[in-house]
Amino acid sequence: MRAITVEAKSLDSARNLYDVLSAFHPELLGSEEEGYRVSVELRNDDRDIIAVLEAIDRYVNARPSGPARVELDGRRYTIYANHV
Q1: How confident is the model at residue 84 (pLDDT cuts 50, 70, 90)?
Q2: Is 41 domain-assigned?
Q3: How confident is the model over 48-77, as a mean pLDDT?
Q4: Which pLDDT score is estimated for 31?
Q5: By residue range, what is the domain housing residue 19?
Q6: CATH code of residue 13
Q7: Average pLDDT over residues 21-40
Q8: Per the structure, how many domains does the chain have?
Q9: What is the mean pLDDT of residues 14-34?
Q10: Quick check: is 84 in a domain?
């Protein structure tokens, strides 16, 4: 099954992202030593990809810290805030 995974800089950041993605049944992974990640399984492929990415985009734009680093299908992407 495909998944979108987002890197988190801290446990607090991972928990916040987990809460934001709660409608998608995320999984919080990692540890202090290896870093934290939040992963969402994509059940409906394209529809889920769009919905999850939109939720991550809203999260990035609502917080004061930097971009989100996302992995999908072995490729890494960065989602930046749209501050104008």
Answers
A1: low
A2: yes
A3: 92
A4: 94
A5: 3-79
A6: 3.30.70
A7: 96
A8: 1
A9: 95
A10: no
